[in-house]
Amino acid sequence: MPMPNFFTSEWFVPEVDNWHLKEGAPPEVVEEFEAYMKRLKENEQNNIVE
Fold it and tell me: pTM of the prediction?
């Protein structure tokens, strides 16, 4: 998977086993983050490595 834009966002908090966004993140950042996390979870469940 290509690196999403939220990775370099000031809103992203990359804690170990606890990736999340800071409160008040703009809707477009939240949307991208949620879509990425959903895809990551689906890939993990299906043993897919991108």
Answer: 0.85
